[in-house]
Amino acid sequence: IHSGLFHDWWGETLLSLEGEDHHRVRRLLLPAFRKRSIEAMRPSFTALAEELVDGFAGRGRVELVGELAEPYAARVICRLLGLDEDHWPQVAHWADDLGASFSTDVAAQVPRIEAALAELGERTEAAREAQVSGVPTFMLGPWPFGGIQSEETLTSFFRRFAARERLRSAKDIA
Question: CB atoms < 10 A from the CB of 148, how many?
């Protein structure tokens, strides 16, 4: 893949950056992943896990990905980005689509990935222009990332949480 939206985006992700560019983006993301930040979020994340488990515990069975892993990860992303948690299904969808960049058939997944990138870019730009509530807080304010102003950082953030897709790809190979 030598051109197009996916190519351009992939070249700007933390995994692809080198030198000063890598360090600059890493410095922007680092505050959110410091021990102090994580510890401050722990009670909220524990309560979320308990809420989700309570939803299926009485049945004595669970569809682990659909009832726990996916909603938990997506709702955590919503909280980190300052989005209403009602948006978690869309966030999970974007994470799946962007996670396809790690699949063994990435070339076949490019249309799916590029569609997600285009939608994220449109939503990010519209939110920035409108300055409405629900705008990812890291784009407008100091916490936790220091006012990042680009959609490529937003999509990079989603990729960090798309490991599920990598696991699915590995499972498909086995």
Answer: 19
